[in-house]
Amino acid sequence: MHDRDVKPGESDAPVPPAIEEIRYRRDAAKRMGGEEAVSRQHANGRLTVRERIERLTDASSFREVGTLTGSGEYDENHRLVSVKPAPYVAGTARIDGRPVAIGGEDFTVRGGTSFGALRRKGGQGGFIEDLAHHYKIPLVNLIDGAGGTVTSVKRRGYIAFPGVDGFERSVQLLGEVPVVSAVMGTAAGGPAGRAILSHFSVMVRGTSQVFAAGPPVVKRSLGKDIDKEALGGAAIAVDKAGTIHNAADSEDEAFAQIRRFLSYMPQNAWEMAPSVDCDDPVDRCEDALLDIVPAQRTRPYAMHDLVSLVFDRGSLFEIQPTHGRSVITTLARLDGRPVGVIANNPKVYSGAMDAASARKQIHFMELCDAFHIPLVFLVDVPGFMVGLKAEQEATLREGMRAVYVAGQLTVPTITVVIRKCYGMAGMATCNKNDIDLKIAWPSGEWGSLPVEGGVAAAFRREIAAAPDPKAREAELEAELRALASPFRTAEAFAVEEIIDPRETRPVLCDYIALAQTRLKTGLGPKAKFGVSP
Questions:
Q1: Considering only Cβ atoms within 10 Å of each terminal Cβ, which end of the chain, N or C, has fewer?
Q2: How many helices (H) and strands (E) would you count in the chain?
Q3: 131, 127, 150, 244: which is closest to 193 by C-alpha?
Q4: pLDDT tens-digit series, residues 279-298
């Protein structure tokens, strides 16, 4: 890491004692918890916080704040003998040339737990969050600590009420600047909560864990032995629960994901997301789109392939790829302009919305809305997931939350119906408060519910009374399916346009260019609501 201290030999002038003391204290801070503690951190497959900052940020850009914070030991003459640095490192830096506020626990010093200063550098509230708020720059949290400890009771002399070090600023920042959290070690309590109060979070498979409370508390509370990886490793926190958005196979890969995410984001909610130069032709029309949707309506296809054929080559950055997999949420670009893409995945539950995918879609819609990123829906949703498990997981409630959030969006939205768009889940792909632009492929179909299930319910008695119930059911389905042609809907201007699938990219590029102009003229003086945890 670049050392901004004045180097010995740079001047022949004598060094005053106070300057020597600054140098001594800074050197102590850079030694962190000492050689043995640093070696243990490396042996556990983890970098130190200073190494993390160095690898994530632009070379020589880190300007540390609070280098002298810590606990000094003095002799009987009040002369400094040694310094134990604070277990948190923070400051400003640049990532791809853009300024950020950055901080993280130093696990080599007391496991990254707070040491009780009057003002915190960071960790939960504190200076680094204030810096991001007042200067309106992104905040990057490198989390590697267990939060509070009962030893603080002895130091303080009483038990503090919850919220002394609260999340007020953390919550406020969600509507102001991009907030990124990387869980780099074992996070519990406050640090774990802060990881969730983020627009984007990432953890490292095998060396990172996150939970409300760790194995000792679980053992004491429930009498169950469980190791920290089984309790809060990436297989649980990312893949199953969706507590953390993405997983990486190494710390360096996690840093790459952070840089990639921030590249789509503006500096704050009062600015536009940055566009980039693009050499992918706007009028690129892929013949592969003509037959990507199978003629048999119940057969799945690769929505990921479809997305890659439409948006700028190499521009996709998927968020939560292993959780809520019946919907795909990815940042992308069209002619260099950032967009958010929400696409149903027919390979998982036929694209039906379950509770997990609803929560995933909600977070992504709120993220894009907070930072003025237009949304493109690629729709193939047969409805909400049904059945006992779906009801137990409150799919209807979570799905209706998605409908509610979609109806509150302030960014331009474009709906492209690829195949199915049914029921209330279909409503969550449209914004009736916007221009409600709906484009369809010829394979598109829509309604309150699919013809098959609808016929069985609406004509139940007639079907049962028929000499051949199955034949009568098939006849009724054929009658209604003929009326369900997307071209009949287009005749009534109930869908704005039906396009050749190959036209999807040029059409979207044109509308996103208009959307960006609209957004530039409509930026208000206040931040959006932000993102709910």
A1: C
A2: 21, 19
A3: 244
A4: 999 999 999 999 999 999 88
